[in-house]
Amino acid sequence: MTAPHAPTDDELLRRLAEGDEDAFDALFRRWRGPIFRFGLRMSGSPAVAEDVTQEVFMALITGAGRYDPGRGSLPSYLFGIARNQTLRRIEKERPYVPMPEGEDEAWGAAGAADVLEELARSERVERVREAVLSLPPRYREVVALAELQRLSYQETAAALGCALGTVRSRLHRARALLLQKLVESDAPSAGADVRPGGRP
Known about the structure:
single chain, mainly alpha, Rna Polymerase Sigma Factor, Chain: A, 8 helices
């Protein structure tokens, strides 16, 4: 027995444009997680990510006919809306919203060694999150789309409304900035300025 055919995004969009509510539900289930995670990675705020997700799907309901497959894939279209909504919120509220501790992390009932290993991994993940959130938005968004959401460079360029070369150069610069920030965060803190003779 063969598995039932899963409709493509384009099929679901066509049905949505014809008023099929089940098509919207299927698109929502398929894309709400990735859109929410993008909003969270861009803003650091679950509340902003939730609002952005709602705005993206409201735009999809009201403007299903505006999507042009010739200009890019549906993920590019949805992430493009999410990007614009997130940047508006960031500009309106503040440039950096700290991510709550333990977001996306699951602690299991493990032995002490496993707990310590998980703690070390969790601290590394948190340092990477903080480094990504500290990037300027033009670098943060390309990292969130191309590296974290795993969109192709072409899809990322379509979502951002920029050239493919721009995506590549921003991603190259973003990786260098992230590496620099992570190396700096690993360096021991100098603390007080110590002068010769051992006195601060």
